[in-house]
């Protein structure tokens, strides 16, 4: 039997780039090995991750959310591993739905492994995601790169982050070749690590080493974790002041604006772009699926 043709798109949010595979009925088999080949920048299409677009009702992990959100973002990292949440991914996912005529400008809900997220597609092209609550479990960790080490704050945005304030972003070294953190009891499933410097009042810049993808040019959940960690470091807690706190976060691939509200929820706003679409060559797919 010949392999069926599978459509894909390519998109990015602040240069965190994704292969998008629309598959409403959850009919496409995407084992980790195939995802890793599709995300390979030389032998595949290339991406920091893959967005498998499935109707919630058709996916066992999302069926319970189908009443609240028609579409499920089945997110995979570039190495094929599964993650709970991807902030830039949700924005690009929503942009794809809009482009495909499956969502309109305004509000929609997207199911993720981290729960249902509210998304707003604005007229000016910006996309805002209600990311839910940031959790800051007490335990900190130590992050070491090239002989330098820093205390890092443990922030959970549905997925795990360790946020380290450094003197210079260059001190994070070559994050492509040096995984800066080894598995520990604090993060048995691995962790995303953010390196942060100040740029001005409520304005920071960061680099990130993503679990399952290596250094990327942006990470939405990471930017939220950084904004919340920076606020606490600055003595700002919206739950105490009763006023929202907004931080601007510069990343190598662009800028994200993060607001934490008095109820502890976090909104993230940034761009989302579709750059191409095509068809995966069935012969190639057969060789990598083998
Ligand atoms: N790039 C994403 C985060 C993707 C998941 C992450 N690598 C993990 O394993 O938790 C974002 O924009 O949030």
TrEMBL record:
<feature type="active site">
    <location>
        <position position="86"/>
    </location>
</feature>
<feature type="binding site">
    <location>
        <position position="159"/>
    </location>
    <ligand>
        <name>substrate</name>
    </ligand>
</feature>
<dbReference type="InterPro" id="IPR018510">
    <property type="entry name" value="DAP_epimerase_AS"/>
</dbReference>
<feature type="active site" description="Proton acceptor">
    <location>
        <position position="219"/>
    </location>
</feature>
<feature type="binding site">
    <location>
        <position position="16"/>
    </location>
    <ligand>
        <name>substrate</name>
    </ligand>
</feature>
<comment type="subunit">
    <text>Homodimer.</text>
</comment>
<keyword id="KW-0963">Cytoplasm</keyword>
<keyword id="KW-0028">Amino-acid biosynthesis</keyword>
<feature type="binding site">
    <location>
        <begin position="210"/>
        <end position="211"/>
    </location>
    <ligand>
        <name>substrate</name>
    </ligand>
</feature>
<comment type="similarity">
    <text>Belongs to the diaminopimelate epimerase family.</text>
</comment>
<feature type="binding site">
    <location>
        <position position="77"/>
    </location>
    <ligand>
        <name>substrate</name>
    </ligand>
</feature>
<feature type="binding site">
    <location>
        <begin position="220"/>
        <end position="221"/>
    </location>
    <ligand>
        <name>substrate</name>
    </ligand>
</feature>
<dbReference type="GO" id="GO:0008837">
    <property type="term" value="F:diaminopimelate epimerase activity"/>
</dbReference>
<comment type="function">
    <text>Catalyzes the stereoinversion of LL-2,6-diaminopimelate (L,L-DAP) to meso-diaminopimelate (meso-DAP), a precursor of L-lysine and an essential component of the bacterial peptidoglycan.</text>
</comment>
<feature type="active site" description="Proton donor">
    <location>
        <position position="86"/>
    </location>
</feature>
<keyword id="KW-0413">Isomerase</keyword>
<comment type="pathway">
    <text>Amino-acid biosynthesis; L-lysine biosynthesis via DAP pathway; DL-2,6-diaminopimelate from LL-2,6-diaminopimelate: step 1/1.</text>
</comment>
<dbReference type="InterPro" id="IPR001653">
    <property type="entry name" value="DAP_epimerase_DapF"/>
</dbReference>
<dbReference type="Pfam" id="PF01678">
    <property type="entry name" value="DAP_epimerase"/>
</dbReference>
<keyword id="KW-0457">Lysine biosynthesis</keyword>
<feature type="site" description="Could be important to modulate the pK values of the two catalytic cysteine residues">
    <location>
        <position position="161"/>
    </location>
</feature>
<feature type="binding site">
    <location>
        <begin position="87"/>
        <end position="88"/>
    </location>
    <ligand>
        <name>substrate</name>
    </ligand>
</feature>
<feature type="binding site">
    <location>
        <position position="192"/>
    </location>
    <ligand>
        <name>substrate</name>
    </ligand>
</feature>
<protein>
    <recommendedName>
        <fullName>Diaminopimelate epimerase</fullName>
        <ecNumber>5.1.1.7</ecNumber>
    </recommendedName>
</protein>
<feature type="site" description="Could be important to modulate the pK values of the two catalytic cysteine residues">
    <location>
        <position position="210"/>
    </location>
</feature>
């Amino acid at each position: 039997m010949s392999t069926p043709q599978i459509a894909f798109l390519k998109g990015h949010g602040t240069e965190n780039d994704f292969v998008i595979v629309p598959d409403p009925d959850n009919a496409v088999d995407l084992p980790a090995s195939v995802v890793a080949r599709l995300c390979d920048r030389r032998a595949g299409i290339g991406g920091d991750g893959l967005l498998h677009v499935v109707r919630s009702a058709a996916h066992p992990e999302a069926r319970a959310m189908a009443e609240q959100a028609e579409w499920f973002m089945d997110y995979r990292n570039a190495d094929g591993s599964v993650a709970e949440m991807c902030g830039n991914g949700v924005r690009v996912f929503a942009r794809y739905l809009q482009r495909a005529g499956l969502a309109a400008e305004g509000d929609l809900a997207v199911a993720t492994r981290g729960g249902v997220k509210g998304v707003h597609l604005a007229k000016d092209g910006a996309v805002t995601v209600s990311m839910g609550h940031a959790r800051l479990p007490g335990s900190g960790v130590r992050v070491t790169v090239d002989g330098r080490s820093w205390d890092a704050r443990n922030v959970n945005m549905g997925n795990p982050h360790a946020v380290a304030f450094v003197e210079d972003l260059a001190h994070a070294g070559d994050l492509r070749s040096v995984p800066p953190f080894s598995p520990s009891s604090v993060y048995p499933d691995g962790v995303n690590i953010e390196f942060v410097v100040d740029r001005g009042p409520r304005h920071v810049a960061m680099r990130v080493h993503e679990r399952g993808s290596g250094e990327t040019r942006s990470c939405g959940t990471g930017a939220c974790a950084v904004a919340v960690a920076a606020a606490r470091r600055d003595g700002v807690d919206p739950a105490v002041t009763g006023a929202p706190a907004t931080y601007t976060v510069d990343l190598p691939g662009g800028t994200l604006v993060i607001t934490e509200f008095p109820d502890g929820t976090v909104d993230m706003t940034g761009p989302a772009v579709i750059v191409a679409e095509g068809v995966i060559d069935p012969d190639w797919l057969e060789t990598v699926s083998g």
